[in-house]
Amino acid sequence: MTPRFYAAVGPAYLAALLAVDTQVGYGGQLALGALTWIVLAAALRPLAPLARAQALGVVVFATVGEVTGSLIWGVYHYRLHNLPLFIPPAHGVVYLSGLALTRIVPARRLVAAAAIGSIGWGLAGLTVLPRLDVAGAIGVPLLCVFLWRSRARATYAAVFLVVGALELYGTSIGTWRWARTIPGLGIADGNPPSGVASGYVWFDVMALLVAPWIVAAASRRSPLRGSRVAA
Description:
Blueprint: H1 3-21, H2 26-44, H3 49-72, E1 76-78, H4 87-104, H5 107-127, H6 134-149, H7 153-172, E2 176-178, H8 196-221
Antiparallel strand pairs: 1-2
Helix pairs in contact: 1-4, 1-7, 2-4, 3-4, 3-8, 4-7, 5-6, 5-7, 6-7, 6-8, 7-8
């Protein structure tokens, strides 16, 4: 399947997933979780080992971030005050959607869109948005540093665009909600905060860092049976 297919179908599936979640209880979330793991597994199948390891790394690091940020710290919470089981694999789908976007949109355009979008969003959160968003504005410079300095800037930019759209959509339909202030710090936070996708970049950074080690370790155990083309 082509990158264009992944770039379109991934976000569409995630949008439908979040909408359905607003209509179901815990049992329904279990079913959505199973379905999303199947979707992720199908998306991973045609990928090269490195891209597959990157996506799975994002799932691991993002899940740690979800448990810490939502269940422990309470910076945001999901509709049923739990961590829906579809969330971990959904992070993998988000990453693959961003990766596919880098295959069809020039890197400079992605980086420009992410930089302009994040800075504009951050400034709006300090001036005109209904909720003051100091915490989000603090995160925006971090994203801009990665967009400026990193060799993977196109991937980070693409993921920011996907995450930003899903955050605006998910909070608007009530799938999750961000606290008005960061617990324990009292810093005003938006719903969603403009810098949330900047924080998401850390999941990608860690996943891209460890993925080559995972592939190397796997290759030492069993030789790869040929490379596949990444989406």
